[in-house]
Amino acid sequence: MPLTGGVVRPLLELAGLRKSYGGLDVLKGVDLAVAPGELVFVIGPSGSGKSTLLRCCNRLEEPDGGTVIVDGENILASGVDLNRVRQKIGMVFQAFNLYPHMTALGNVTLALRKVQGMARAPAEAKARDALAAVGLADKQAAYPIQLSGGQQQRVAIARALALEPKIVLFDEPTSALDPELVGSVLAVMRELKAGGMTMVVVSHELAFARDAADRVVFMDGGRIVEQGPPAAIFGSPREARTRDFVAKLAERS
To answer: In the 8-state DSSP scheme, what is residue 5?
Structure first.
């Protein structure tokens, strides 16, 4: 939403975000702003705080300090309606988290009925639209065991999209997939980007980041070390730690 003078308000804004587990500081005062329609790609070594960062954005993990503002609202404020807030923030996990005893349609419909309180018929109609949007119109009656990993992840994306979120967070969405199935999920994410969806993606899919991301954020030790356009981060990073990590990623890809 534009502010006075044409300045665009961030859709997601983190300020001084801190999270500890026991004596381990996982997030050490992270500041990050994500503009509407922006695709921000977060990279970093294991244990750098990437997944915790995402989970703090919708309070799956409770931050120990700082602020999380989504669509102009501080979701850490006392008395905030967390159920309502979470409808603005879609989340796609590494594990698909589908109910095995329910069809693809049932999995997407359940989210609409439980979260938004929709009646079955309109919920199913909306779920069919969401499945069609991820290329699974012909799989709505299939159970998870009958779907490939890539198809299951696309059902999970459809489940998130059906709630019409303002932003979608992706936590390693392709890392559990066989290499030949990764492309179908990334194709859906590219379509979401083209449609203007705001996304924060934790992943090591470098080719996708170079091609689709607006900005790449490198995290290490619970802090943002460096961020910038993909060409800068992957081609000429300023920080030695970033250069070292990017070089190792390139060796593995």
So the answer is: G
